[in-house]
Design goal:
globular, two-stranded antiparallel ribbon, 6-stranded mixed β-sheet, 3 helices, alpha+beta
């Protein structure tokens, strides 16, 4: 009997980031009393650092992407404060295509009026 190895989306993301030369750390944690996961600032699962970039990353599946985007851009979110300090914010979305995991990065950016928009990258 063979065991199938399971790699979580967070593990896949940190592996991808490290292969691209980023220093990264998982920053979400599980609270056993409330039985809930908590993200850094209510936004990020992983923090990545490379050169002068500090990137907060929310990781999700394709089916959950729009809910994560709404959560991050909600008025009560800390995203605007994060972006105003010249940090970057990404949503990394994973989906399985023909037995292979693929991901897409969505960079969240803020214009001068404080409107948050997303810049999509192709599936990799």
């Amino acid at each position: 009997m063979t065991m199938m190895s399971f790699m979580s989306p967070t593990s896949r993301t940190t592996k991808m980031l490290r292969s691209e030369g980023y220093l990264c750390e998982i920053c979400e944690h599980y609270n056993s009393f409330s039985r809930r996961r908590h993200d850094l600032l209510g936004l990020f699962d992983v923090i990545a650092l490379k050169d002068d970039q500090l990137i907060g990353i929310q990781i999700t599946s394709e089916s959950n992407n729009s809910a994560r985007y709404r959560k991050m851009t909600d008025e009560s979110s800390h995203l605007k404060a994060w972006l105003m300090t010249n940090n970057e914010a990404w949503i990394v979305t994973w989906k399985k295509v023909k037995h292979r995991w693929r991901y897409r990065k969505r960079r969240l950016v803020m214009d001068e009026q404080g409107t948050i928009d997303k810049i999509l990258e192709d599936w990799r």
